[in-house]
Amino acid sequence: MTQVAGTNTGADLIAYRARESALFQIRDAAAIADTWDAFHTSLEALDIPEARARQILDSPVTMDLHLHSAHSDGENPPHKLAWLARVIGLKTIAMADHDNVSGCRALYGEAMLLGVSAMPAVELSTGQAGLEILVYFPDAGRFFDFLTTPRGRRFLKYLERKQQAVHEATLKVVASVNRWLKRQGIASEARVTEDELDAWFGGQKPYYPGTVAVLGLKRLSPAKRKRLGIHDPRRFNTKVVAPALKRLAASPGGRSNIADATSDVRRQLASIRRSGVGSVTVLSHPKELVTKGKMSIGQVASTIEYLTAEAGLDGVEVGCSRDAEADVRVWREIIDDINARIADGGIKAPGPLIMASYSSDFHVLAPGRATGEITLGFGLLDERPHHQRGNLRPQTSPEELLEAMRHRSSLRTNR
Length: 415
What we know:
alpha/beta, 7-stranded mixed β-sheet, two-stranded antiparallel ribbon, 17 helices, 9 strands, about 10% strand, disordered N terminus
């Protein structure tokens, strides 16, 4: 089920502009509201009550399984993700903060009250640039019980160590980014500051390097962005922040073999499987293995095969906000090849790899090409013809994906 490309008509652009305007109004109303009722009242005062908001927004999907909150490098607190999902018309969401599950209860509780299904999740980092693994817990009750067990508490300690490491790295990256900005002619008084990071995260640590990319981009004028070829936070991250992180890494160039780079994560995933909590592991945005990890397509395929055999990988994000149509074809070919070898016994796995679509990787609600941000329920949403209703390319129906995840999770509940 591939997304139908939009056409470049005046009506499409008018609809996009209405969509963009409504989303900025929704963002601003959510930012100042303390409760759902206050938020709901603000929307009605703006003449965009829920029903009208959904009509204007016309989201192409009803599910988004890759959202970030202010508990990692997103801008919204967890409970407000439930508000946004409800107004946009999303029926199912998953918040997958980086190495952090501290916001899962707040999201789950608020979503339940609003009639939105929320799945606990986490995005685990590794020692390889661009390689991150999503872990979903389809049974929320089992997951919250798991966190109270000795094994669950050890997992939380592991996440705390990861958060401390990323916080320290982020502070060092700020200095590197400020030096880069100075070379681009940005005045020293306009540097990124720790106070600015502290305000972004509401005084909650850790800070995350992805936010430094957002703040750094704001310092660049349109002319500088055009000259440097940096038009969005992801490109800033790839060209400025990621190289700084690599220089901080212990191994030369920040590169290592996949076995070493994933050793800690593989141990955690094995422990989670042994717990019987029921989980599904998915490779995040494989395109970043190319852009950040500097891998060839062949190396990406080998990495997916290794993770399937050695880390219990259950699926791969396909058709997410980072993927062009050509990327989708490549990932599908790799998955089809691995699934054929799973079927004939060449690779040991409990079943075929899942194509996990419905993943925006949302952080900040700010649609439009000028910001380059990703919008929940849409992916890249901007004035370009093929982005006016987002760029997500679902490969299955939401029901098919959720059923595949529940089935795979049930296979992981055997102790």
